């Protein structure tokens, strides 16, 4: 089996505290993967004059995938390249309960669904500015019954839902439902009652794609109705697909059902590239304290391993994480334990060795 190549970025604040030992663990598993760490950020700027030099970009392009630590700083340009440069349009965020997770629900056992978030458009295109710049367009609000210019000074943000962007991410969700082979159901959700044109298009395309998948059940809900259903009966969900902003919010809420963002992995997939990162942020408030939960990073690593055809290793690592949670004696404080990050990794390595 030919070696795969994975580009790695450790991230900011507390992120390296879980990324570095996860990377060490993956290297020790002897998986036939070459991990490269492109130089970006301040070190790159001092050497090349830019935070994201061409050499780092070339290493990403040459890699089969990227393993990305949480960022809020100088590596942000890398994240933008991984999204829009590599066109990773489908953000997959699994929500799977494992015994030992500190869920607030009375009966979390059996929760196993996936949120597919469109990753490139919607409000996240960053099309914002002063409303004065749009005054000459004579934009009339049918809800406010007034022109935009009559509402007074302010700011605007443009929400863009395209046919291409919607079709490809919705099709990805249907293919995922087939691969999961669980409930074989896809749920489309957005605010198509109030945003009948933009979100209405997303729903319309969802219905059209659903007509091609007679083996997959299809349903749709307005986003606020969906949120209520997700909280009240998460066991009824299989694959849920939605536009970017809703997906960002709902996936974080879904993580709360099973025990928090420290447990939430994430993968972003394009036609020929993918990158993987935990769903949580950089946690600057706990940086350097050896308390950050590595679970989200580890489970993101299993998604990476599946993507680069190391499925047996992915299963082995998932099993080791499950073993640590079953034992409960080495859980971090967010999961009701008192162990540090390093204690978790010691227990995880022991679980890998004992099988």
Structural description of this entry:
- With 355 residues, the protein is α/β, with parallel strands linked by helices.
- The protein folds into three domains: 1-102 and 260-355, Isopropylmalate Dehydrogenase; 123-158, no CATH class; 161-258, Rossmann fold (3-Layer(aba) Sandwich), CATH 3.40.50.
- The chain contains eleven helices and 14 strands.
- The protein has helices spanning 16-28, 41-48, 54-62, 76-85, 163-180, 198-210, 223-232, 244-258, 295-307, 311-327, 341-354; strands at residues 4-9, 33-36, 65-68, 90-96, 112-118, 128-130, 140-141, 146-147, 155-157, 185-190, 217-222, 239-242, 267-269, 274-276.
- The protein has a ten-stranded mixed β-sheet, with helices on both faces. It has a two-stranded antiparallel sheet with strand order 6-9. The chain has a two-stranded antiparallel sheet with strand order 7-8.
- Helix 1 links the parallel strand 1 and strand 2 (33-36).
- Helix 1 (16-28) runs parallel beside helix 11 (341-354) and helix 5 (163-180) packs across helix 6.
- The radius of gyration is 21 Å and the shape is globular.
Instruction: Give start-end ranges of low-pLDDT stretches.
Output: none
Major sheet summary line: 10 strands, mixed
How many domains in all? 3
Strand content: 15-25%
- Sum up the overall morphology in one term: globular
The order of strands across the largest sheet is 2-1-3-14-13-4-5-12-10-11
Secondary structure: helix percent: 25-40%
Secondary-structure element order, as H and E?
EHEHHEHEEEEEEHEHEHEHEEHHH
Broad structural category: alpha/beta
| Named CATH architecture of the largest domain | 3-Layer(aba) Sandwich
Please report the number of helical segments. 11
What's the β-strand tally? Answer: 14
| Rg of Cα set | 21 Å
CATH class of the largest domain: Alpha Beta
According to CATH, the fold-level topology of the largest domain is: Isopropylmalate Dehydrogenase
Instruction: Report how far the terminal alpha carbons are from each other.
Output: 23 Å
């Amino acid at each position: 089996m030919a070696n795969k190549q994975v580009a790695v970025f450790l991230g900011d604040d507390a992120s390296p505290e879980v990324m570095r030992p996860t990377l060490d663990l993956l290297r020790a598993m002897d998986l036939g993967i070459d991990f490269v760490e492109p130089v970006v950020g301040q070190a790159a700027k001092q050497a090349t004059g830019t935070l994201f030099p061409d050499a780092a970009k070339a290493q990403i392009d040459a890699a089969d995938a990227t393993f990305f630590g949480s960022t809020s700083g100088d590596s942000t340009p890398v994240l933008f390249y991984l999204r829009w440069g590599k066109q990773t349009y489908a953000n997959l965020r699994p929500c799977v309960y494992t015994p030992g997770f500190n869920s607030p629900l009375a009966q979390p056992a059996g929760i196993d669904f996936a949120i597919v978030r469109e990753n490139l458009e919607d409000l996240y295109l960053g099309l914002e500015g002063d409303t004065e710049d749009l005054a000459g367009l004579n934009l009339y609000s049918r809800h406010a019954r007034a022109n935009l210019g009559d509402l007074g000074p302010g700011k605007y943000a443009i929400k863009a839902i395209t046919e291409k962007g919607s079709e490809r991410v919705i099709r990805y969700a249907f293919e995922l439902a087939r691969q999961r082979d669980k409930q074989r159901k896809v749920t489309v959700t957005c605010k198509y009652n109030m945003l009948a044109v933009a979100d209405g298009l997303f729903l319309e395309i969802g219905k059209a794609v659903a007509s091609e998948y007679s083996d997959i059940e299809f349903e749709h809900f307005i986003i606020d109705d969906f949120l209520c259903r997700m909280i009240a009966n998460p066991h009824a969900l299989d694959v849920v697909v939605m536009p970017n902003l809703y997906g960002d919010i709902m996936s974080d809420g879904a993580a709360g059902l099973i025990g928090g963002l420290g447990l939430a992995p994430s993968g972003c997939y394009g036609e020929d590239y993918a990158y993987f990162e935990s769903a949580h942020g950089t946690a600057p408030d706990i940086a350097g304290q050896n308390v950050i939960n590595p679970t989200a990073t580890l489970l993101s690593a299993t998604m990476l391993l599946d993507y680069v055809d190391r499925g047996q290793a992915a299963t082995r690592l998932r099993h080791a994480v499950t073993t640590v949670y079953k034992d409960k004696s080495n859980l971090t404080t967010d999961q009701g334990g008192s162990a540090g990050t390093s204690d978790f990794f010691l227990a995880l390595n022991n679980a890998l060795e004992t099988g």
